[in-house]
Design a protein that fits this description.
Length: 637
């Protein structure tokens, strides 16, 4: 269905359009900065796991720096004509969010923007913020029980409500929420920060309407959205040939059943420009696995997949002519008209039925980024990045030195995939501007010592362009505590493409190298760690791009010098024989040429286009590759 427009007849001055677009981006950044400076929890204040967004009165997302939640559930339950200045709306109910909220810790605040043309204030836009909060109740600290079988175990569900009524806070609702949280003070402070920041953003937008007039600003909104549509049609969709391709990837476990392949499949069809309603992309999720018993489900089939369209569209920017141009492309409502989504019937990983649990839905929505990248790679001969898995939740909780309960949780990133023109980036985070928690801060606030925070050597997948490296973090507990983890890719790996190899998987080890060494499951709620115990966390490396035997030998030597690749991996993965000491490694050119020739000669010639790593065989019954891992697998002429 084609996106509505505000319908104004005003001709937009292109200079003014840029001023308005820049103002929107500035207001969005001001809202996010205010939240970061006034919030209290480490997850919001320090890790920056939150986002803001600006939407018009047609509920269209206007800003494109990052993804955001949706205004649709607010407008559905509270007609715009009933809203008043000073109103603040709130929700976190996944199944009533129209797909904009993925799990209960993501609390969403929405503030309407008003403009008065002389006939009384009317809603002209919305400012919205949502972030991952410390605790909203449920079965475990942090509200992400890895073994949940129902959303009722995951925390307090709040459908869209009016949290502030014409400037007056709803104290009863706030009391209910804080009473259900293990961290009531930080929850209250974070909500106050988000409400205040969005109200400030609303005032800024009202000033913009007052300065230029409603008709002019709304004409600029239409031009911003339509400009994005035209840019993606001309610069991105034109790079994908007409045709149909299929690819799939998997989550490996759901916290309840034994590890298995939870399939997420995309069949991509490019409709040509000369065809009806073309050009556009059809993304069909048919073939996706049934909904899981555990909490890895994602509610994608709401509002015609509006959230998923904007969530997945940034992947397509990799088709831009240059990396610099890719960085300039925003994703706003303008991409929605270019993508049709087709969902399987209710009861799958992307169409779960209430009350299926969802707290680990990152196993699906992050994987879908990779599935789309992979299926597009099949269409464009690999001109897409290899895989990455750049979010997982790890943390510890217990009582601090004063006997008070604490919860330390962070979202550690991982390596991004190699690209056709460059290596992947090390230790990136999928949420823009998010980061790991500073060691100095965590050591001062929580009863542990960070003994190491660095790069995990050899974690990046080998390739002509190597995958980025993940983190290696060593935490020594000063007091008894419990470790928690919500992570995927501990068996399966981030895949490599076009000859590139898979990266290293996620792992957590207690007492590494000691007498009580043990590996912790990637889904863990309460793994006991005694005082003095050491926790080692290694996050995923990105997949490699292209044949590692084609990697520049000097780049391999540099990686060895920098400690990113070991001497052993240089030989085994890249066919580069290293001589010299650790401070001045060199390549034995003759031995390298001979070894690379030997490794090439040992190949069978029937290698798949994608490499999933050794863990895939554990869950596939021994197969190294899936049907769709070959270029002709799932292709339709």
């Amino acid at each position: 269905m084609k996106t509505q427009t505000l319908g104004g007849s005003t001709v937009v001055d292109p200079v003014l359009q840029e001023i308005v677009a820049g103002s929107l981006a500035s207001i969005e950044m001001e809202v996010e900065t205010a939240i970061g400076r006034t919030s209290r929890s480490p997850m919001i204040r320090d890790a920056h796991d939150y986002r803001a967004g600006i939407h018009d009165r047609l509920l269209r997302k206007l800003t494109g720096r990052s993804y955001s939640a949706l205004v649709q559930p607010i407008a559905r339950d509270f007609p715009l004509e009933t809203m008043r200045p000073g109103d603040v709306f709130f929700h976190n109910d996944v199944y009533q969010s129209e797909g904009g909220i993925g799990h209960l810790p993501d609390l969403c605040v929405t503030v309407p923007v008003f403009h008065d043309d002389g006939n009384g204030p009317e809603v002209v836009a919305f400012v919205q913020a949502f972030g991952h909060h410390d605790d909203i109740g449920g079965g475990v600290p942090g509200s992400m029980p890895s073994h949940a079988t129902s959303v009722f175990e995951e925390g307090l569900m709040v459908p869209p409500i009016k949290l502030w009524d014409a400037g007056v806070p709803n104290r009863a609702a706030l009391s209910i929420m804080t009473r259900n949280s293990r961290m009531p003070d930080s929850l209250a402070a974070d909500l106050d920060a988000e409400c205040s920041a969005c109200l400030m953003g609303s005032r800024r937008l009202t000033e913009l309407f007052t300065r230029y007039g409603r008709e002019t600003i709304e004409a600029c909104f239409d031009a911003i959205v339509s400009g994005t549509t035209e840019t993606y049609r001309r610069e991105i969709l034109s790079k994908i040939p007409t045709g149909t391709w299929t690819w799939e990837d998997y989550a490996e476990h759901d916290g309840v059943d034994d590890p298995k392949l939870h399939t997420q499949r995309i069949t991509l069809t490019k409709v040509g420009e000369d065809e009806p309603e073309g050009p556009k992309l059809i993304i069909d999720f048919t073939g996706t696995a049934p909904q899981a018993k555990g909490p890895i489900n994602h509610c994608g089939d709401y509002a015609d997949g509006n959230f998923l369209k904007k969530w997945l569209a940034p992947v397509l920017r990799n088709l831009a002519d240059t990396p610099e141009r890719m960085a300039e492309l925003d994703v706003n409502e303008g991409v929605v008209d270019l993508i049709d989504m087709r969902f399987p019937p209710p009861g799958t990983l992307v169409t779960p039925i209430f009350p299926a649990p969802t707290n680990a839905r990152t196993f699906v929505i992050l994987r879908l980024l990779g599935v789309l990248s992979g299926v597009v790679a099949k269409a464009v001969d690999g001109r897409m990045p290899a895989d990455q898995e750049t979010i997982r939740y790890t943390g510890v909780y217990g009582n601090d030195d004063s006997g008070e309960p604490y919860l330390m949780r962070e979202v550690l990133g991982g390596g991004s995939g190699g690209r056709y023109y460059a290596d992947g980036e090390d230790t990136i985070h999928v949420v823009p501007d998010s980061r790991n928690l500073p060691s100095e801060f965590t050591e001062a606030r929580f009863p542990f010592i960070v003994e190491r925070l660095g790069l995990a050597k050899d974690s990046g997948g080998a390739g002509q362009f190597r995958g980025g490296l993940g983190y290696e973090k060593l935490i020594r507990m000063r007091k008894d505590a419990h470790f928690m983890s919500i992570a995927d890719r501990s068996i399966l790996a981030c895949w490599g493409v076009k000859g590139g190899k898979a990266g290293e998987s996620f792992s957590v080890t207690i007492d590494p190298g000691g007498p009580n060494e043990r590996v912790v499951d990637a889904l863990a709620d309460a793994e006991f760690v005694p005082a003095g115990g050491l926790i080692r966390i290694r996050t995923t490396g990105g997949g490699g791009w292209g044949d590692p035997l084609d990697r520049d030998v000097d780049h391999v030597v540099r990686d060895v010098l920098w400690g990113k690749v070991s001497v052993e991996a240089a030989r085994a993965d890249y066919g580069v024989v290293i001589t010299g000491d650790a401070d001045a490694p060199e390549a034995d050119v003759a031995a390298t040429e001979a070894l690379r020739a030997e490794l090439r000669g040992a190949r069978t010639g029937d290698e798949a286009f994608f490499d999933r790593g050794p863990g895939y065989a554990q869950l596939s019954g021994g197969a190294d590759s899936a049907e769709y891992d070959f270029l002709d697998g799932g292709a339709v002429a």
